[in-house]
Amino acid sequence: MNLLIERFRHRLVVSCQAYPGEPMRDPDTMRRVALAAARGGAAGIRAQGLDDIAAIRDAVDLPVIGLWKDGDDDVFITPTLDHAVAVARAGAHIVALDATARPRPDGRTLAETIAAVHERTGALVMADCSTFDEGVAAAEAGADLVGTTLAGYTAYTVKGDGPDLDLVARLAAAVDVPVVAEGRIHTPAQAAQALRAGAWSVVVGTAITHPTTITGWFASAVADAAAA
């Protein structure tokens, strides 16, 4: 097993991202969030955008999973090989990219993209998938890790209230690469459940690093209690 991937085996990776237009949408802010996550015990950081990746790579001594969200097409997480190469060159140890069955904007297959990332940059590849078949295909295409990131976020999958633990378990039993649980993991209990389901590692973003959403959860609960 790759030594880099071993560093976050059975541990937490924190996704440090902010949406465009938000007060925290700033590379230095995300760098500080990553530092706070590292201090709290994160074993890796997932970051979006070239400036954020570079700033976080310089700030923390942890594996960085990088991605670049770009475009309005269905495939927008590191959608092309050029995006993937740029992510690696910005400092990401691992490049996360859309590994769904949907066509990629540059016309390359997933296997072609993964092979080129390996050859041109030496970076590893995390395949963000939404179904069991996509996860299996991504492993066969050469992905170094398979994530459940997009389960519930494609037109042909169903979005539940919590993480898709069944998908985690099925993939962990079927592929010979590490499976990363990601998506709608909102509590420590859910993170533990994902690990028990067979996940190599667990990625948590919103519940740790997105105060707008967290505030909304509390505000909604208080409003409901006040109306009862």
From TrEMBL:
One of the protein's GO biological processes: N-acetylneuraminate catabolic process
Enzymatic class: isomerase
GO CC list: cytosol
Entry EC no(s): 5.1.3.9
Catalytic activity: an N-acyl-D-glucosamine 6-phosphate = an N-acyl-D-mannosamine 6-phosphate
Single GO MF annotation: N-acylglucosamine-6-phosphate 2-epimerase activity
InterPro entries: Aldolase_TIM, NanE, RibuloseP-bd_barrel
Recorded superkingdom: Bacteria
Keyword Nuclease: no
Pathway: Amino-sugar metabolism; N-acetylneuraminate degradation; D-fructose 6-phosphate from N-acetylneuraminate: step 3/5
Keywords for this protein: Carbohydrate metabolism, Isomerase
Task of the protein: Converts N-acetylmannosamine-6-phosphate (ManNAc-6-P) to N-acetylglucosamine-6-phosphate (GlcNAc-6-P).
NCBIfam families reported in the protein's UniProt record: PRK01130.1
Homology family: Belongs to the NanE family.
Protein name per Swiss-Prot or TrEMBL: Putative N-acetylmannosamine-6-phosphate 2-epimerase
Protein species of origin: Micromonospora citrea
